[in-house]
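Dear Dr. H.,

I hope your travels went smoothly. While you were away I took the liberty of generating a structure for the chain from your last submission, since the lab meeting agenda had it listed for discussion. I wanted you to have the full record in hand beforehand rather than looking at slides cold. The sequence, exactly as received, is reproduced here:
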Amino acid sequence: MRAIGIMGATAVLSLAACGGGGGGSTAPSTPIAATPTPSPPASATPTPTPVDPASYDIAFDLTRDREFALFGAEISSVFNGSTYESVDVKLLDLGALAYARYVAATQATTISIFNVASDTYTSPAAQSSNAISYGTPERSLALFKPGPSMGGLRAELTYTIGATQHVNTALGAGETRIMDRRFVSGTATVATDIPASGSAAYATIASEYGLTAGSRDSYTALAQSGGFNVDFASRSVTASIVSAQSQIIGAPVSTITLNFSGDFVGQTSQIAGTLTTSDGGSGRWAGRVYGPSGRELAVAFTYVRGAKKVIGTAEATLNR
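The corresponding predicted structure, in token form, is as follows:
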């Protein structure tokens, strides 16, 4: 905020004293300077109010009921047995009202979009200290701690979680609708706990999943190098990530660079912006900073490269 100073004007008042009674003389008026009105103090730029790190919940704590506001990316397609007839992607920012709700007593997790509880998963198929998964190959959900197994992190993240969801729906006549989602969430940084100056570089991991309409091409990708940078003074966010892509089915794909550019959303912990790729693709991303003083961040993104459509997530922690 810009500090605004307001100067008070000083008023000078002339008061005349009048004498009484016959024969008396009139006393001359004497100018009297009024006491200056003090100027109100200039409003200062708000300074961050540190929050006790111990007050931030560990994100992947399934010993109690949890609810997470999700940032996500969705890719859906119709597969006819030989090719993807159509492919669509969408970014699920906070406007999509996406949530994950976990009930500790039953170990059930519900995913809702636009406040519609459409998918509930019960009876975990597997669970460990850093992941829980549900379902079958036709309908599945997994929640997990992002960590070194995905790439360039030295340890698992504390305040961030990731999730993947997959649903196959038979349409008849040999066609199947396939839907995949990638989510991020966690313990959001309190707005007043976000630094107001300085900058930070983040060690980053990223994963992608893409399909090509009119073919059976599909691929996944992991970050090979690069990462996010945050300028807290200007509240801007950038990243350059080299993505090493691996084919699942179809033609081989090459390594590309993803360039992210964006900002904090108002005075919140949300971040959002656009991305471009080194081979002409473009898209959008949205996410948040998590943990004490924005120690971690995570985003979901989508982009289009010609006939290829891609979803992904990136998770990061401060370089130390």
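Two observations you may find useful: The domain at 60-318 is CATH 2.40.160.90 (Porin). Residues 1-45 have pLDDT under 50 and may be disordered.

With kind regards,
E. W.
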